[in-house]
DUF3885 domain-containing protein
Amino acid sequence: MTREDFNRFWIINYPDTVPISHLFKHDHMDRWFRIHSLPESKRYADNDEEWSILLMRQNEIITDLFGANSKVILVTGEYNWGERTIHLVDEEEVYKKYSFSRLDNIDLYKLNPDDYDNGEVYRPAFAETVWIPNQHDKLLQEIANDNTRAFFVSFDKNIIVAPYDGGVDFVLKDSLTRDIYKNKYKDWLSIREDGL
């Protein structure tokens, strides 16, 4: 997939947002839902048993949505604002097995001047990969520890899977499909009314 292909598919499927995962829950509320990775909405795993639960939950639901051995796109990027820095994807050990292509920079100040300073940018990149259960566990653990940020997308199935430190956000093809999976995984949902 070329950069042009990615941009074309993104605009067709997600015209109301840019490829930055924390925006999805706001830009696609009608087809978004979230699961928590640990019981009682605990945010971080502290021991092997909790890591086992976290990875089991994430692998189970992601495999259910994508299907095992499905081609997906991994999207991540580089940013540096405030005290938070994510380095170039090829400098991070967890990304060495993926072959990334750069996308156009996103001007964060232009996107949201209330939250960002002039000159702050996000430098996204994508890599084609295959979703195989437990093959992306190191990356899922790094995201769960808030050491990096990345998400998976299937343009074929119109699904975004965006893990974060605490759970996973999903954007499905429509609200009906979202409701089916929300019900299926209701025991992993937040008890909050807003679903966060």
